[in-house]
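To close the chapter, one final illustration. This time we ask the reader to focus less on the individual chains and more on the assembly as a whole: which components sit near each other, and how the overall shape emerges from the parts.
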Amino acid sequence: MSEASRRRPSRRASTTQLAGLSLAQRRREARVALAFVAPAAIGFIVFYLVPSLRALWFSFTNQNLVGSGRFVGGRNYAKLVADPLFWNSLVVTVEYVAINIGVQTVLAIAVAVLLQRLTRSVVIRGLVLLPYLVANVVVALVWFWMLDYSTGFVNVLLEAVGVDKVAFFGNEVTAIPTIALINVWRYLGYTSLLIFAGLQTIPKDYYEAAAIDGASEWRMFTSVTMPLLRPVLALVLVITVVGSFQIFDTVAVTTKGGPVNATRVIYYYIYQQAFERFDLGYASALAAVLVVLLSALAYLQLKLMRSNSSDLA
Amino acid sequence: MGWAEEATSRPRRRGPNWGRVAGWTVLSLILLITLFPFYWMLRTALSTNNAMYLDPSNPLPVQFSWGGFRRVFGLASPAEAAAEGGTTGSIHFWLYLRNSVIVSTTITIGQVLFSAMAAYAFARLRWRGRDVVFFIFLTALTIPPIFVQLPNFILIRDLGLLNSLAGIILPSFFMTPFAIFFMRQFFLGISREVEEAAMLDGAGHVRTFFGIIVPMSVSPILTLSVLTYITSWGDYFWPLLVGRADNARVLTVALGIFQSQTPQTGPDWAGLMAGTIVSAVPVLLIFLLFGRRLVDNLGYSGVK
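The assembled structure is written out below.
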């Protein structure tokens, strides 16, 4: 981000340099640009723009899966406000995101700093990234098996050291934390490498100066690394939080929303409304609320993190 | 990079490297937790399902058997499967593997090509409305996919493409906002002089892009391709909506169905883990080939 803004002056300079281009050349350039953007633009219009408007329209109709819907005004939204299962799904999702992002971010910063301090090995960085390569469904299945109550490896281990077995997925209290930690396992390496890339942009002089002043490792971390990492961290947090709200695969494969409603996250609830109850209108209204929520959250996060950041400039 | 070297040698001045020892201990622990489940997949897949229940703590395959893999590829007779305590239903992982390969390969080629072209137009060509159009594309980044996937399902249904590979491929074939953003970040960093030299030699914009810019951008293009492949290979939600039928089933959907069909008491874990390995291996191979680039370039995805 910061690099892009630093590059801008040189771009402007060369634009003025080329300002003497003939009209014909400019036209040709615009035509090429149109041809280059066209396929992506078609994809964008057909599969993003029009569907967005259509989803918004659906949310004011009683659209179902087979026929076409009739305008019903704000009925879906009124229903949503009064729907305890919707509020439950919000609470459950927020709980998931809080655990998932909280644990993941702290661990990812730790891993990124460790990687930077201890080794330059690409192999180790590659190994850390391995869980990210396998599908969510695979990750869910592997941990569903490892955490199985009767013969899963973790419970066998717990029993061996004399601790009571835990019904990780079958207990209302442990189900969401379990799913949140499974996804920490999958995304930890990916997040660490993003933060690691951010660490590379901190000039070494800052550390040298701090070392000359006799600063300890911890002091360098709190006074140099964290303040300078803040813009990168803000971006990483926006990306991971938005992604975290979209938790679906793990729930769909393991608990299917249960026990009772303990893991009925918002994405899964929308899916059920659309494809099990066939109520596309209501599902669209729920999704629209999610859009507003996530946009507001992303905006707020960037604003908060930027307000007291001490960027390199 | 040079700094990393200095940093790693610095603590040596302060006597024993307890900090480094502690650091390596933590990192090793994290690596262990990261890698162990992969081993357990393999150990389970190579066990005989029935026998495994009686010896759950054995770190090695219990009664070594290829039965899990044979069931997954439909090679085991029902009698053989039943004897091992495996699922007796018919599963065709060759078909699902083929489907996944077709879907991910097609999506990757289309998405990377078209996104790179668009990104070049956004980064380097001058045309009216460029920045506005780019901004509109970017707003799609914060929209949760499910919002557009509900109407897209209706669209694919109306096109008669439900339960076809084309239906799975189409929405991701032309672009994603992320791919355009990623490539644009890279193109912005290429020196203008490269293009100006090419133009002076009489090359048009199209030839400059395909003849000079693309060869210069092999590294980020490969990185994006691997990321796109991983993402589409692992995608579950969309194929679940439009590709449940056997002929259009991809591996993730197949695994989900396999899991829901295996008995609740005494599931066929050996078969399931064999299935997860089959679905993980192709991506791991790609990573083995191009992983270095991915690991080095991941930062472009917004951070650098």
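The radius of gyration of chain A is 25 Å. Chain A has one domain: 78-307. With these observations in hand, you are ready for the problems at the end of the chapter.
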